[in-house]
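Structure (tokenized):
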């Protein structure tokens, strides 16, 4: 019974993190859309396309698939493939002036996504794991 109550509490604690991530993703989506639209509407070419390999922190197929799908939903980026061993996501980006900075943005995005979707198991203060 204690485990069920604890599990329910952990699920409920995830809701605010999920809402924060949804807001973050919506903001990123709008900014990326405006950036691509601006590039299409102006005559100057800003494209610096390339592909980066990003080591993934996702452990489950759901986490890796969610990350790949969120990247592909964002204008200007596209998931190319995922290598399962080791977990590496290859991402095509339209605006890559600096591949390492782009990789860091993707890793920050994944960290935020994982924080929102994972249940954070915290032992109780008394150390009781029942």
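Design, position by position:
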């Amino acid at each position: 019974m204690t485990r069920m109550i604890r599990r329910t509490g952990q699920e409920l604690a995830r809701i605010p993190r999920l809402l924060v991530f949804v807001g973050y993703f919506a903001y990123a989506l709008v900014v990326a859309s405006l950036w691509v639209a601006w590039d299409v509407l102006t005559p100057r070419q800003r494209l610096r396309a390339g592909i980066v390999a990003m080591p993934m922190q996702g452990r489950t197929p759901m986490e890796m698939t969610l990350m790949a799908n969120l990247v592909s939903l964002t204008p200007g980026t596209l998931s190319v493939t995922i290598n399962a061993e080791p977990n590496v996501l290859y991402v095509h980006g339209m605006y890559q002036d600096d591949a390492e900075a782009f990789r860091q943005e993707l890793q920050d995005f994944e960290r935020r996504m994982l924080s929102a979707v994972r249940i954070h198991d915290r032992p109780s203060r008394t150390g009781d794991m029942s």
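Reviewer-requested clarification: DSSP finds three helices and three strands in the chain. Confidence is low (pLDDT under 50) at residues 122-130.
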